[in-house]
Amino acid sequence: MIVGLVVLGGAQARAGTHSAEPALEQAFDSGIDVQEQSRWLRQLSSAPNHVGSPHDRANAERVLGLLRSWGWTARMETFSVLYPTPLRTTLEMIAPERVVLGGQEQPVPGDDSTTDLSQALPPYFAFQSDGDVTGALIYVNYGMPADYAELERRDIDVRGKVVIARYGGGWRGLKVKLAQEHGAIGCVVYSDPAEDGFARGDTYPTGGWRPPEGVQRGSVADTSLYPGDPLTPGLASTPGAIRLTRETAPTIMKIPALPISYADASKLLQRLAGPPTPTAWRGALPFTYHFGSADGVRVHLAVVSDWSQKTLYDVIGEIRGSTAPDQWVVRGNHRDAWVFGASDPLAGQTALLGEAKAIGGLLKSGWRPARTILYASWDGEEPGLVGSTEWVEAHLSELRSKAVLYVNTDSMGRGFLSYAGSPELTHFLNDVAADIPDPEVPASLLARQRAHLLVQRFEGEPVGRGLEGAARQGGDLPIGALGAGSDFVAFLEHAGVPTVDIGFSGEDSKRGSYHSAYDTYQHYVKFVDPGLLYVNTLSRVVGRIVLRYAGAPTLPARFADLAVEIKTCAGEVEDLLKDQQSSDTALDRLLESGMFRVAADPTQVRTAPQRPRPAEAVDLSDLDAAADELLTAAQAYDRAADLSTRLEDSQVKRLNELLSNIDQLLLSEAGLPGRPWYRNLLFAPGWLTGYDAKTLPGIREAVEERHYDVARTNTAIAATAVRAYAIRLREATSVLVPARPGKPNR
Ligand SMILES: [Zn+2]
Asked: Quick check: 1 pLDDT over 70?
């Protein structure tokens, strides 16, 4: 019998096709009601939704009830996790004059969500360390490694002082971590208007950008080491789990830290003395930025928190697959927010609900997916991806053998579709994007993406790697690489599940309300996605991904894109090695001839840079050869999959055995150097960048930090994994193109 007739309602079972079924997808679309989505968003974002808040819990019950009413088997999975909430936050300038700063944001005229903020937590950083410190204030720009190198050249020492950094340039948690590593006793981070305030556009409520009082809250846990509950790395936070203590948990910071607004930061920054900063360190505030000095501005910073365990409520809906129940398509979006969270995350949650209801409608008409579909409404994303990470840790072995895809969405905007994740999904996602019209412009989502890239490039704006060529040539637009920043991390980087993260952005001002009390329903429908047109479109995109992936007889992945990605990344590391060599040579020449001394302004302190550990060669040819082998094997598989027509049951079964967990071959059981929780040899968040992806992280970061032996060892590990992947693909190809009977297999 030919598998696929049952599952696909008449479509032929072809290996690796995505099996779009227009009638099914039309029925799905007609099950999504944008008015209803608006009502859900208004309701879900009507009160503060931080972890432990009554409304976040009520929303969990609401989502659970809705899923059940639509025919899903749904359950609540709870975890007990460490989650500090602020009891008292203090920030005051004590010299040259006394000014009280910080505290809750102010109501905004016309936005009734913000009228009563008594149930909202004040601006704070989750997983800073409580403390009470007083010291001189020093401005450190973005507070990234290059900024501290510059301070050192100027003989400015932050030891024993409080630093003030601006948002941008790298992840917020690194700002606190690097401050403490450099000996600072406290850290303040503010939103410069250059980043997301008046320098970008009109501020709320006139426009959507960050008003002077807006503060970006956030987690500063060191999630580049491991995300989730800081007390239970690698283990689910069940009530009886073995726990670290607050003192021994390495992801909790050791100094007090607070986020502040630019209204408050202005009062501090404009009084700073010391030399003026370089131009690149200046934001958009209307005065000259200075470094600060030991005898200038002094601040008092204190934080007291309630460090009790809190309960997380993950809601999981399930539809059991009819023919392949042990293959899971998982889709998630978090539900907790810093305050109301209309854009981040509830617009994404609203898209998820729209899909779940429409899928429920299909169920009622008798349809069943071939594979099992799981829908997850995560709790505790904001403090460090806690709800999703604990869930993945609780179900790790099952996920590693059963999950074939994880689809993530999070905060939502308006504009252009973007997706990032596992390269073997590239072609599949391009096909989905080509099938869905933009809600505002008469073009497909893919055509808009392509036009946007080409116009951007023409106008001189940088576009992502490989995107320009692909846009010009009309081929598939490549998928971006994933680092961190949302609930996909544990799936992709710990469990090795093929993953995609999707959203719309580019034509909104959602960054202006990001993690503030102003991320409200009113802000959202006025300045982010009026009419929820893009929320509705996101439901269609994700719905198609889920329906096609759950319905295809064999998985729709195409692997040549993965091989090309590995080759490209290896080439980037080779370029980095060459750059290190030439930069060392240039620096040596300048140092030996005393050029820094001669070029320096004698009225200022600025010494020559330190000579780094000398660059060495690392031979990447074995990895490159392995990637070539993979490319050949992948092209053969992709071609065979495209040409294959009718598959026998036994072929489908064998292909699924070979390919449904093929990405497990890209995991290292020992993990990445210095951070064993992260196991994916291809993707990780950067140690010293945060959210941004590092591809081939074990090799690339070792080179960046000039630990060349580590880079060599990790090159060999990656090459072995890539070869194993090629072997598996060749086996899969031989299932599609068996040796012809009666003829010797050449
Ligand atoms: Zn979010």
From this structure: no
pLDDT above 90 as % of the chain: 91
| C-alpha 343 – ligand 1 centre gap (Å) | 8
Compute the distance from residue 411 Cα to the ligand 1 centre, in Å: 5
d(CA 517, CA 349): 18
**Residue 545 Cα to ligand 1 middle (Å):** 21
Distance 598 CA to ligand 1 centre (A): 50
What pTM did the predictor assign? 0.95
Count of beta carbons in the 10 Å neighbourhood of residue 295: 11
Query: Is a pLDDT exceeding 80 seen at residue 183?
Result: yes
How many angstroms separate the CA atoms of 642 and 703, rounded?
39
Report how far ligand 1's centroid is from the alpha carbon of 335 (Å): 8
Q: Which residues contact 742 (CB under 8 A, 6 or more apart)?
A: none
> Considering only CA atoms, which of 335, 368, 351 is closest in space to residue 48?
335
Expressed in angstroms and rounded, the spacing between residue 349 Cα and the centre of ligand 1 is: 10
**Pairing of the two strands 298-306 and 131-139:** antiparallel
**DSSP one-letter string for 648-715:** BHHHHHHHHHHHTTGGGGGB-TT-BTTBTT--BSSEEE-TTTSSSEEESHHHHHHHHTT-HHHHHHHH
β-partners of residue 659 are none
Q: How far is the CA of 381 from the centre of ligand 1 (A)?
A: 7
**Does residue 122 contact residue 90 with C-beta atoms inside 8 Å?**
no
How far apart are alpha carbons 229 and 316 in whole angstroms? 19
Report how far apart, in Å, the C-alpha atoms of 241 and of each of 199, 236, 394, 460 are.
Answer: 48, 7, 11, 54
- What distance in angstroms lies between residue 145's CA and the mean position of ligand 1's atoms? 26
